[in-house]
Structures are given as C-alpha cells and as structure tokens.
Design brief:
There is one protein chain. The protein has about 325 residues and is of the alpha+beta class. About 20% of the residues lie in helices and about 25% in strands. Strands 1, 2, 3, 4, 5, 6 and 7 form a 7-stranded mixed sheet that branches. Strands 12-11-13-8-14-15 form a 6-stranded mixed sheet.
Length: about 325
C-alpha cells in the first residue's frame, strides 16, 4: 500500500501474483475506501496498517478502481460498504493457516452504449433533476417504501414545488437516484444517496403503466434509453407577497428528451399506489414535503393549560378542589 499525500488517500501499490489478495480481486491502483468496515478518510498510513493487523487471518477492503474513483468523486457521491451498487469477492485460502482476503468494490453504472432497443410506442421514463429553491423548504415530495412489495415510490408531491416543476408525480416508481440504481437498495440507503449531494437530486422514475409495459416485454429500464425525458426544476420565479414559503409559484417541467448517459434496470411486478400508509405498511422516512411535514408536527404539539381560556366558574371549581 501507499499513501498519496496529494490526493490524501490510501492506494494499493502492488499485488502479488497467485496470492490471496489477487484471488479476492485486489488490483494495483485501487483506492482503499474502507478496511474492515472502517473508513480510511482522515487516517494516516500507520493507522490503516494497524486496522489491517487487528484481524490476524482475515481482512475486508472496500476499494474503487481508477475509473470508479473518478466517476463517484466527480459527482460528489460517497461510497460505503452499505451502498447498493457493490460487488463482493472473496479469496479461498490454499491452506488452513493462510490468511483470507475479502474485497468489496463499487460498480460504475453502465453507460448509454448498453441501452436496449426501444419500441416506438414505449412509454417514456423521466430523469427528474430536482433543485432546491432559496425560499422553499425542502424539495416538495415524500419518498415511500412499500414493505409488502419492497418497492420505493414517490408519495405526495406538493403543488408549486421544485419536485412538481421537475416532473415528479405521485406513484412514480424510483429506478435510479443520483445515477445509482436503487431497485435492490434499502430505504435508508436511498435516503443517504439523495442526501449525498446538497440542494439537488436526480431521480429516474417511471409510472406503473410504463413499468408494466417494459416488464411484460422483459426490457430493462436504463436512463441511457433514447426515449428518456430529462426534466429539470425551473428557477424560482415568483414568491407570493405574504411570505408563505409553501406557496412558491413554480412552472411546468422543462423536459428535454434523451439528455442523459447513465443506465440501470427495474424488476418486480406492478403494484397499486396505496391510498394510505396503514393499508400497505408503507413508511415515510424522508419527509421531503414541507407542507406534509408541518401537517404532521402541528397535531403533536402539547397544549399549555396556562394558555387555555377559563371562565370564573371553572376557576372557582379549581380553587375548591385545592
């Protein structure tokens, strides 16, 4: 291993031929992101060596090859061993007394060249680029996870919100977030990916009818497909004079067809959009809708009895009870 003082990261310098490290998939120039589940950020070379030595017979590396390192770094996307788009590799010891190496590496999303041929009548998936407005709280949408089906979808989308301006719709199924496929990701992982880039997020979505169309034809949805719409939040152009942040006036989505270069895929069958969280066991953790969030907070506020109106008779009865 070597520590690059300029990049401030630890890298694999050389890998022995026919060794357990090579068998586990380690390669020269790989950047070490984690060792035994611990991030290497901010750690010096001796500290990382100590972590490796803490496990005598086995060590696990999370690494990025140069291409993946450039891809995620340029997009300000943080990768951890909990990320959904990783590949796990493990060496097989030649002898019982030989150390074992495990390697977890992040996979770069496929590019447009891998996009399938699309029928002329195919519904259009949307890549919604949602940008926050200075005078609006949050993005203006809720992200829901259906526990019964394991499907992530868009819940409520606020009127005149950045999310609505970017083309998000109630019930949209989420395929990618920030150019990372999330079809197999857990809800908490998806939330983390959304938050990885401040003040903006990109979601590749498709409605239920569109998903059913592609699923029935065994076509995987990828954002490099020729019929994908790119929809971006327009600038916040008109704030109402009463100062109500939830009533910012937006515009219709600014959509341009085939303006993306990433790809991924969906799975599972179509599901109905739930009418309430309790009907299907859905949960709303992200809470990106400002109006919806305030609506849930207000009923929970405790009432101060000192501020409640009281007539003379009520006061008299209270004094008699003392």
């Amino acid at each position: 291993m070597r520590y690059d003082k300029t990049k401030k990261h630890e890298f694999i310098n050389d890998v022995d031929s026919d060794g357990v490290a090579q068998a586990a998939g380690l390669k020269a120039m790989d950047r070490i992101v984690e060792v035994n589940g611990l991030s290497t950020d901010g750690k010096q070379h001796p500290e990382i060596v100590d972590i490796i030595k803490s496990c005598l017979s086995e060590v696990t590396f999370l690494v990025l090859d140069p291409e993946a390192d450039e891809y995620y770094s340029s997009r300000n996307i943080s990768i951890t061993s909990a990320s959904p788009n990783i590949k796990y590799m493990q060496s097989t010891p030649h002898r019982p007394d030989t150390a074992q190496a495990n390697v977890v590496t992040a996979v770069v999303p496929s590019v447009q060249a891998s996009a399938p041929d699309i029928p002329a009548d195919a519904p259009q998936p949307r890549l919604c680029h949602v940008l926050k407005w200075p005078h609006y709280e949050g993005y203006g949408f809720n992200l829901h996870f259906n526990k019964l089906t394991g499907i992530e979808y868009i819940g409520e989308v606020d009127n005149r919100s950045p999310a609505e301006s970017a083309g998000l719709k109630n019930g949209d199924r989420v395929i990618e977030v920030n150019e990372i496929n999330v079809q197999e990701a857990e809800h908490a992982q998806i939330v983390k990916i959304i938050k990885s880039i401040p003040n903006e997020t990109k979601l590749l979505v498709v409605d239920n009818a569109g998903h059913d169309f592609y699923h029935s034809r065994d076509i995987k949805i990828v954002s490099g497909m020729s019929n994908v719409k790119y929809c971006k939040t327009k600038e916040e152009n008109n704030v109402l004079p009463n100062g109500d942040e939830s009533r910012v006036v937006g515009q219709q989505p600014d959509c341009v067809q085939n303006a993306v270069t990433t790809s991924r895929h969906p799975d599972r069958a179509q599901f109905p959009v739930p009418t309430s969280p309790t009907e299907t066991g859905t949960t709303d953790i992200l809470g990106l809708s400002a109006a919806a969030y305030r609506a849930t907070i207000v009923p929970k506020r405790k009432k101060d009895p000192k501020l409640q109106p009281m007539d003379m008779k009520q006061k008299y009865n209270i004094l008699n009870e003392l």
